[in-house]
User: Fold these one by one.
Assistant:
Number 1:
Amino acid sequence: GAYTFLDQDTSGNFDPSNEKRVPKKTRTHAVKFPKKVPVKLQSSKASRTDKTSKTHNFYNIPKPTATHKTIKGKKKVRSKTPPSKDQEQDKAEKPPRILEPRYNNYLTPEALRIQPVKSRSLSPDILEDTAGNWGQVIRMKTSFTHPIQFDVSLGDDNILDCSFCNMAEFSFVGYFEQDVYCIRWENGCGYTHIAGGQTKHGQTRRAQIVMCEGHDIQRIYPDTVAVDFAEILNDLLTEEDPAAIKRQLLRWCSMCFSPAVFACRKRQSSLFSKNEEIDSCGLRLCAACEIRLRENFEGDTSAMAATLDDEDKAKEDDEDLHGKVRADVGFLSTDGILARNLNCLTEVEDE
């Protein structure tokens, strides 16, 4: 587009020599200042009739006047009469009010929710049961009632009350896993339910598995034989004779609730019959547990049992128990309650 300068000849005959230029040093600029606006100030000292305006600038700022807000319906009336002697005496005898610190003055609402509250006195850490067993109170997960009596001989009348011998499914589910408070015996041989409970016997035969050194794992059935879970479960639950129940339990995995297809075939001395040799420690494994024992634990059944014992057991509301960790899997660990009881019995016999 075309531009037009103020000092340019609009006729088109522009001569630069005739242009008037102003040096930068002598060039002046016009600056416009804002107009002063008169401000009227009303004060108690100023006369209402005098309506003269007063100009204010940065150095002469009007002082703000305090305004009082009135509350509708509430008028504070001060008594002009002095207080009586009785009122002054009551005021003097009244004790000073002590205010507790308010946490919400310097804490956030989130912090207020976690303020410590007063509670009942804590339970003692060390307790003793009626049998003289004492120890620390702990919270634990278990599928059984405690204490468990392991030193029951075959001729003892109490064996008739053993849940392991008379209840086919007891080794797998027990009384179902739950959180309980127990006294953990100081000698490490057992626990006692604080709220009481029944004493159960059995499972000493699993000590043979714990003491077996170097399992010789072999197949029970040929590869072509398929084991039906529902069929052998029905055979287990329909048995009522304790001896028949023990034979049925040998068809199941020692680690989980699955049919066994492998077994230990190592010949060894019996722990419970002198001068007797047996062909197996009693260890039974399903296909999944055999692979896990061989690949993950290098054949160490104690380490595998201790690991599985920390996993979830069967709950009462579980619909499918196939493959669930057995309730008594902890008995196969060298650090388990069964091995500790056997050690305690050995120490007592030596004394």
Note: The longest strand covers residues 134-142.
Number 2:
Amino acid sequence: MDRGVHHGLPLITSRRSAPSPCLVVAAARAARTDKLDAALVEFEPFPFDGQAATRFGTLIALTLGAKRHRLDLMTAAIASARGLRYTRATRRTSVHQLRERHSSR
């Protein structure tokens, strides 16, 4: 039998088991939070202000039939209100690739 500790209490199991799904989810959330924290330190986010909100309403009206994510539209509205080109990055697009694209303009 394996002995361990769970929330400060002894834990006895008959065999070694995989990590709890809760621990896996918590680890994934912590990794995402670390990435977000790093991005916030490196980049200053644009606010979702009145001009962006107006543009967001226009974008919603134009894309009601298309199945777009609202967060994509909010980001696009902020970029459009500031005259910036909007490119939706995929998981394969690194911060460095985005920075290279931006600096080459």
Note: Helices lie at 21-42, 50-62, 70-81, 95-103.
Number 3:
Amino acid sequence: MLFDSNMWLTERQKYGVVSTAAGVVFFLLGILAFFDSSLLAIGNLLFVIGVILIIGPTRTIYFFARPTKIRPTIFFFGGITLILFKRSFIGFIVEGVGILSLFGDFIGTIVQFLRNVPRWNRT
């Protein structure tokens, strides 16, 4: 079992974590497949759905619409749009800038979460 029954995540958030992780996997596969736009698009879709499931729709809108995050949000969704229009490499670069600006603060939180996942913590 990937998630322990006494973890602090709700059922919806567990699905969100799985969706986000699948999105990252598809995104990486898209990169490994020489920027295959289909895999990148599926990865983006799963990632955004996962974020919505983890923090909820209202907080997701607030997260992306904060005045300090407007420019990174434009880069992120602009990159997704470029990928959907088959401009994979340019879209990847634009989206990457947006991802680093939007989610760079959460890297420590993500690492800490992964350490608490029972099967991934081998210490």
Note: The radius of gyration is 15 Å.
Number 4:
Amino acid sequence: FADTEFDIANFSLGRINHGNFSFTIFHNANFSYTRLDNVDFSSAELDTVNYSSANILNAVFNKGSLRNINFSFAQLVNVDFLSARLENVDFSYALLNKADFSFTSLSNVNFSNAQLINVNFPNTILNDVDFSFAKLHKPYFFEAQLTKINFASTALILANFRLTKVSNTTFQKSSCVASTFDDTSLSDCNFWHSNLKEAKFKQAKLNHLNFSRANLYKTDFTGTNIGKSELENALSIEDAVLSNGTLVHDANLINNGQGDCNIPLINGWTLGSGNVTKLMSNRSNSNCQFTLESLSTEAAIYQRVNLSDKWDSSSWPYSQAVLMSSEETLNSTKEKISLLLNDDMWELEVFIKFNTPANLRNMNNYWCDDIKLYIVYGTDLELTRVIPNIPANATWAQNGVTVAGGKGRGDGKNQLNNPNGLFVDDDQTVVIADMWNDRIVQWMKGDTTNGKVVAGGNDQGNILNELNNQTIVLNQLNNANVVLNQLNHPTDVLIDKETDSLIICDDKRVVRWSREINTGEGEILIENVKCYGLAMDDQKYLYVSDTEKHEVRRYKLGENNGTLVAGGNGNGDG
């Protein structure tokens, strides 16, 4: 059909393979619900053409002119718009996978509620384009020009805006986690209530930007012209980097968290038991530390923190409270612990326990100071994953490579004993449920000689009243968790990146185990379930297979009663 002119043409519900419409002119054409495979529209002029709900594969619109075009609800895979002109084009609710808009001009184009995967916009001019409520996986805007763009409530996952010029654009309520704005020029842009966690603005030119209520956790502003005063209305600036490389932090949610010698202990803290005092630091003459009073061997202080005006569960559903401090316990140190926040949490209790042998003479060797509590805010959009595109005809190598064990059955660091479930992290670290060794072991990429025990390994155990060193840590009020230090034939394991912890199928329970060094303890998440396999979805729900009840249940973290999703009708193959 090259060099043809169509006036009122209907191709709807059809199928076109290897069609050539190059240099063709269309007026009022209909391709709705049509499948187009290897079709060439290069240098074509399209006006008032309907591609709604079409399936377009390996198509070319290069150097074409597209006006008043409807791609809503269409699927476009491997489609090129290189150097084309798009005006009044609707991609709403469409799926675009590997589409290329390089050197293209887009004016009044609608991508709202669309899903874009690996879509490129380098050197593109975008004017009055709507991406609201869309999901963009690794979009590439390198050296593009964006004017009057609407990214409101958009998921920009690992977006690259490097060397882009952006003006009069709204990012309000968008998720730009780990996105790159390096060397970008942004003016008159609104980031109100956006999630910019770990985003990078290095050497960017920032003028008249609104970061009010934005999450700037670990955001990097190195080399920019922005100061701390311009970020004062942000939701969080914890560990953000200012222009000169200075780290900034959120206000401490703990009252009297530093051991100030001029402030009584009673300010902020309640003495639960024993006696705690403040002593001059052995490292600084201007600083005091919380420590046990002389001749005391045990004490506790606690403080309650109201979350009602600090955390909105509907806006930031996947958030965690982080408690950190400078402390020393018999010359060993710990840094921080975290707690995933649930919808029904309105108050936290921070509990500091001092415990030392009676024969310890020097209280300066056992102290706590700089106690800080802050919130790491998160949304479900951070958990969105790109599913790998594995061809249907893919084949797998038949000769595998040993990455763990291979030294026969045993309990050595280079051995496994009936390994069951495993989980592979993004860096190819392998975590294995070493069932008959009652432990979880970790094998780093490239190290096939020795594994590292990261949970359990203290012989078999599952009875709570046999455990030692039980303690209550930062937690929701009236919902204390008991920690444990043993596993009993664990069968599966996964990594929860939100809390940097392991979730383990262990005998008749599901437990969480911190990945932090020297933790050595876990906590029970779900009890009275004969767990064999585990999975977690993007909304942080746990799926647990129960071999006694022959069912699979879904659990919300923090709850012990799950929802039946499969089975539950007894043993059988029906």
Note: DSSP finds no helices and 43 strands in the chain.
